[in-house]
UniProtKB/TrEMBL annotation:
SMART domains associated with the record: HATPase_c, HisKA, PAS
Keyword Ubl conjugation carried by entry: no
Keyword Phosphoprotein (UniProt): yes
One Pfam family, short name: HATPase_c
GO biological process, one term: regulation of DNA-templated transcription
Function (record text): Member of the two-component regulatory system NtrB/NtrC, which controls expression of the nitrogen-regulated (ntr) genes in response to nitrogen limitation. Under conditions of nitrogen limitation, NtrB autophosphorylates and transfers the phosphoryl group to NtrC. In the presence of nitrogen, acts as a phosphatase that dephosphorylates and inactivates NtrC.
Taxonomic source organism: Massilia cavernae
Source organism, top-level taxon: Bacteria
Lineage per the UniProt record: Bacteria, Pseudomonadati, Pseudomonadota, Betaproteobacteria, Burkholderiales
Protein name (Swiss-Prot/TrEMBL): Sensory histidine kinase/phosphatase NtrB
GO molecular function: ATP binding; hydrolase activity; phosphorelay sensor kinase activity
Signal peptide stretch: none
């Protein structure tokens, strides 16, 4: 196959595979590598029939197209991948010279995904405005309440000082607790965005050491890094906080598995090509996954986990994922989550130079 003739296929948003007459994959474009989470080199060792758990359906479609010499044949398929969500795709098989076939795979849910991302961005912006306004409205009277309680404590008669001081201290401590909460809500909007060169694997190694220091036994944190990922411009401390918030939530959700000794978190990095992030198309993007084998996120809150003050565990502040989303969006990226019992996968996509 002429490499120059195939170069234009890398610009397509849909995944394209070319297989020879025996069904062995000869070519995959950038979108196919991204969709199948594999490189051209790895894909070229496989056949269409073995690419998926039910790959025979795709192979049969190719044979049908060749046998009847159709210009192309189209069908919706649910292609199963071991241990992962099935790919719901619209497949188009075209017959080439010499019995080779060109297979185009278009995700049926791609448009739904783009619509969901746009809705989440709008929702996040509305949440940030609400948080800022609400926090400022709370902050002003809170200082007055605390100050009044302190003045009241100074005016208490000595005879009842110990007994009544207990009540004024409750007011002061609760006012301080609310002040801390307000400060955390406002933190991402106050702190300056300090931009420098970021090596994402240095960020992940820092998070890994912090989590293992808190959970020294029963938890394995596995690395699955793509060493070819270049440095990019970003705020290193914000990215550390982002990954740490997600990984720490995962470790806390793994409490039972940690006791059993089989808890696992996977830190995985890849390069994604031709990605649309926040309505902008990028040639390259960092594809970062934080995966755990915990119980999964409750279906009742799965669609609201990035909302402020929504938490899946007792005692949680419900701010960790909200802050993570804010920091990712400040880097022009997106964050999403897939979760089911036994596997929760937080995916962060950031543009690369």
């Amino acid at each position: 196959m002429n490499a120059d003739a195939l170069a234009g296929l890398d610009l397509l948003a849909s995944a394209v595979l070319i297989a020879d007459a025996a069904g062995r994959i000869q070519y995959a474009n950038a979108a196919a590598e991204n969709l199948l989470d594999s490189s051209v080199k790895a894909l070229s060792r496989q056949s269409l029939a073995t690419l998926f758990v039910n790959g025979d359906e795709l192979a049969a479609l190719c044979e049908q197209a060749k046998a009847h010499k159709y210009a192309d044949i189209r069908q919706d398929l649910a292609l199963e991948r071991g241990g992962r969500e099935p790919l719901h795709v619209h497949s188009i098989v075209s017959v080439l010279d010499g019995g080779a076939v060109l297979v185009e795979l278009r995700e049926n849910d791609q448009q739904l995904k783009l619509d969901r991302e746009e809705r989440l961005l709008d929702q996040s912006q509305a949440n940030k405005e609400l948080i800022r306004n609400l926090a400022h409205e709370i902050k002003n009277p809170l200082g007055g309440i605390r100050g009044a309680a302190q003045l009241l404590e100074l005016e208490l008669p000595p005879l009842h000082l110990t007994q009544l001081r207990e009540y004024t201290q409750v007011i002061i401590k609760e006012a301080d607790r609310l002040q801390t909460l307000v400060d955390r809500l406002l933190a991402p909007h106050r702190r300056p965005h300090i931009v420098g060169d970021v090596n994402i694997h240095e960020v992940l190694e820092r998070v890994r050491s912090l989590i293992l220091a808190e959970f020294p036994s029963g938890l394995a944190i596995r690395r699955d890094y793509d060493a070819s990922i270049p440095e990019f411009r970003g705020d290193k401390e914000q990215l550390i906080q982002t990954v740490l918030n997600i990984a720490h939530n995962a470790a806390q959700a793994l409490a039972e598995r940690i006791e059993a000794g089989d808890a696992e978190i996977i830190l995985k990095t890849r390069v994604a090509r031709q990605m649309t992030l926040a309505k902008v198309r990028y040639a390259l993007a960092l594809d970062l996954h934080i995966i755990d084998n915990g119980p999964g996120i409750s279906p009742q809150i799965r669609d609201r986990i990035f909302y402020p003050l929504v938490s899946g565990r007792d005692g949680g502040s419900g701010l960790g994922l909200t802050l993570a989303q804010t920091f990712v969006q400040q880097h022009m990226g997106v964050i999403e989550c897939e979760s089911r019992p036994g596997l929760t996968d937080f995916r962060i996509l950031l543009p690369l130079p």
